[in-house]
Amino acid sequence: MAKPQLSQELIVQTGLEILAKEGIDAVSMRRVAQALDTGPASLYAHVSNKDELDELMFDRILADIPLPKPDPARWRKQLKDLLHQQVQAMLAHPGIAKVAWRTMIPVGPNALRHAEAQLALLRAGGLSLKQAAYAADALSMYVKAFAYEGNAWSSGEVSEKETSERSRQMLEYLRSLPPGTFDNLLEAREMFSGDNASERFVFALDAFLSGLTATRD
């Protein structure tokens, strides 16, 4: 059976398949070449290096997210839905949020389309260009950070056992102190878990967008 013709698309797809099975740290030019039954040198005609491969994989997962046509009457919901889908796409590819976080200036076509869509939605909400740009920057950082934390849990980068033990030790320490020292921390400790992660994400978006609405020029 003939091997498929080598292309950037095939290399990126193979990288994503390795990521799904072995994690982001396993993705390398050498590993992709091995999976394609070729030498690493043959990849460089299509992808210049590992950093570009990582960014291309991140850009590829954004391609499957539909971009809304801005509606001034629904801009908040449209923006929340878009950001939620971005998070879900990163969570579905454990480790890819690490790529998104270290890519300071995304230049992939899909990343650029997402950035344009976010700005358009914010401006449909009545924000000035400056407000929309600053808001989009802050929202982008929050989305990537939230997904990064989720990826860390799902990939095993964060040890659930060690975290549970650390939480137990902290709780034991807080309870050993005089009443009134850390009452709020003790009362709020159960509000931070994987079970309510989505609720916390939506709460932060709602609070942020409400603030934006109140400060429109």
Explain what the structure shows:
The protein is built from 10 helices and no strands. With 217 residues, the chain is an all-alpha fold. The model has no long low-confidence stretch (mean pLDDT 91).
Summarize the topology.
Blueprint: H1 8-22, H2 29-35, H3 50-62, H4 75-91, H5 96-102, H6 109-124, H7 129-155, H8 160-176, H9 183-188, H10 197-214
Short description:
This protein has helices spanning 8-22, 29-35, 50-62, 75-91, 96-102, 109-124, 129-155, 160-176, 183-188, 197-214.
Features:
mainly alpha, single chain, 217 residues
- The helical percent reads 55-70%
Overall mean pLDDT stands at 91
Question: Low-confidence spans: pLDDT under 50, at least 5 residues?
Answer: none
State the shape. Answer: flat
Structural class: mainly alpha
